[in-house]
Design brief:
Blueprint: H1 13-26, E1 34-40, E2 46-52, E3 55-57, E4 60-66, H2 70-77, E5 80-87, E6 92-102, H3 105-112, H4 117-125, H5 135-148, E7 159-173, E8 181-187, E9 193-197
Antiparallel strand pairs: 1-2, 1-5, 3-4, 4-7, 5-6, 6-7, 7-8, 8-9
Length: 200
């Protein structure tokens, strides 16, 4: 495997990200769209979890969630967040750090109604991250909603999309003897990107 060189890296980090994402998918990575999302409270207490990355749109990484979840509540307090993609099959890691904004209600509805009917019902039934008495309570709630909405499920008021606009993106490639390649793209004023090499 050839080294990851600054001189051969595309000027736009999303070109490299899309290439690595495609490579991981074609290589058979298990759920290549799974990404760790880290958020923090106003005071800086962190939390992290896996979410599903959906797309790169307008220079941002898009995902969807319940606005009342822990991540949603933390993003209201502190809109800075980080993501980590790891595709072991390709020995690649991508780290992203930036700020998060909510997508429009219209964009959220478009995606929500593209999901399977069961997933829509589950999103409507769930009060994500809140204590629930039992699994049975959840299943009964979904069954009740299925009877009420056999066709189109309304978009929950507290559910929607987020877009993480990166301040920097780091590409990490495993190398022998732990002399890994690390290239970081840092956004400059005006939107251009500066490429830096980091020590492994």
């Amino acid at each position: 495997m050839a080294p990851l060189l600054e001189s051969e890296a595309p000027k736009d980090p999303f070109v490299l990200f899309n290439r690595w994402f495609r490579d991981a998918s074609e290589a058979g990575a298990l759920q290549p769209d799974a990404v760790t999302l880290a958020t923090a409270t106003r005071s800086g207490a962190p939390s992290a979890r896996m979410v599903l990355f959906k797309a790169v749109e307008a220079g941002a990484f898009v995902f969807y969630s319940n606005h009342g979840s822990r991540k949603g509540r933390e993003l209201v307090q502190n809109n800075r967040a980080a993501m980590v993609f790891f595709w072991s099959i390709k020995r690649h890691q991508v780290r992203v750090s930036g700020t998060v904004r909510r997508l429009s209600r219209e964009a959220s509805a478009d995606y929500f109604h593209s999901r399977p009917h069961g997933a829509q019902l589950s999103a409507l039934a769930s009060r994500q991250s809140r204590v629930v008495a039992s699994r049975d309570v959840l299943e009964k709630a979904v069954l009740a909603l299925a009877r009420r909405y056999p066709d189109e499920v309304p978009l929950p008021r507290d559910w929607g999309g987020y877009a993480l606009t990166p301040r920097w993106i780091e590409f990490w490639e495993n190398r022998e003897d732990r002399l890994h390649d690390r290239l970081r793209y840092v956004r400059q004023q005006g939107g251009a990107w500066r490429i830096e090499r980091l020590s492994p």
